[in-house]
Amino acid sequence: MKNKFTQAIVRQPCPAMVNGISSSGLGKPDFNKALEQHRRYVEALEGCGLRVTVLDGDDAYPDSTFIEDVALCTAKFAVVTNPGAPARNGERNGIRPVLQGLFQELGEIRSPGTLDAGDVMMAGDHFYIGLSERTDRQGADQLIALLGKYGMTGSGVPLRTMLHLKTGLSYLEQNNLLIAGEFVDRPEFQGFNRIVVEPQDSYSANSLWINGKVLVPKGYHRTKQKIEQAGYPTVELDVSEFRKLDGGLSCLSLRF
């Protein structure tokens, strides 16, 4: 199989992560445990055939290990986003020079528009963009305009309860979509082969397809079994410390 992705960028957790943004009610993360979980995450990415660039942690930004929110990487270009949480907005300055060294074409979401790339799900050449507390219509429209320059398309999806679009959706390629919560009955997703996640397992809707394998958070055997029944080998990873900060598997890397 020809790899869809060849590289990934991650940022190590920093000690200040214990003060990161959270609505989970699960308590503060254990930094040393998070470091070990992150190390195993990087190993899993490498096991899927990716060359991983590991950036140092940045104590100025407690949530900066969730690198997916500050950039979007496609096969043709990358975008520096404009994160909707004010405490995270400065993270974009740290990712810009990294992307400039890897991409010839680099776009940017500009104020007053906001966009977290955790709200962006790629399905082929179309990108679904969650309109959330972190991503507004102006930010989404800017991204859609950028995509159009490269022959790709995008559409907005208003969110009611989810933090990010990919909190409840994961595209597994081959028209297969892992789906949970408010998205299950949404008309824009009815054309997919939907793998519905049980309500009590909703956290596992943020699983991650990489080159034929699917990374799944540890402890969700029903979701893991459904993914395997759909024909995918799975890799189970413990991300408990990142869940405490409302983060999941896709949040921890940029893949391209």
Structural features:
L-arginine/glycine Amidinotransferase, Chain A, three-stranded mixed sheet, 256 residues, alpha/beta, globular, 15 strands, 23% strand
- By CATH, the superfamily comes out as L-arginine/glycine Amidinotransferase, Chain A
Report the strand count: 15
Largest beta sheet: what is the strand line-up?
Answer: 2-1-15
The largest pleated sheet is described as:
3 strands, mixed
- CATH class placement: Alpha Beta
Q: If you consult CATH, what is the topology?
A: L-arginine/glycine Amidinotransferase, Chain A
Brief overview:
Helices cover 20% and strands 23% of the residues. With 256 residues, it is α/β, with parallel strands linked by helices.
Structural summary, described in words:
Helices cover 20% and strands 23% of the residues. The chain has 256 residues and is of the alpha/beta class. The protein has one domain (7-255): L-arginine/glycine Amidinotransferase, Chain A (5-stranded Propeller), CATH 3.75.10.10. The protein has a 3-stranded mixed sheet with strand order 2-1-15, with helices on one face. The chain has a 3-stranded mixed sheet with strand order 3-4-5, covered by helices on one side. Strand 13 (213-217), helix 4 (221-229) and strand 14 form a beta-alpha-beta unit. The chain is globular. The mean pLDDT is 96.
List the helices and strands and how they pair.
Elements: E1 7-11, H1 31-47, E2 51-55, E3 71-73, E4 78-80, H2 92-100, E5 106-108, E6 120-123, E7 126-131, H3 137-149, E8 153-158, E9 169-171, E10 176-179, E11 193-196, E12 208-210, E13 213-217, H4 221-229, E14 234-237, H5 240-243, E15 254-255
Parallel strand pairs: 1-2, 4-5, 7-8, 10-11, 13-14
Antiparallel strand pairs: 1-15, 3-4, 6-7, 9-10, 12-13
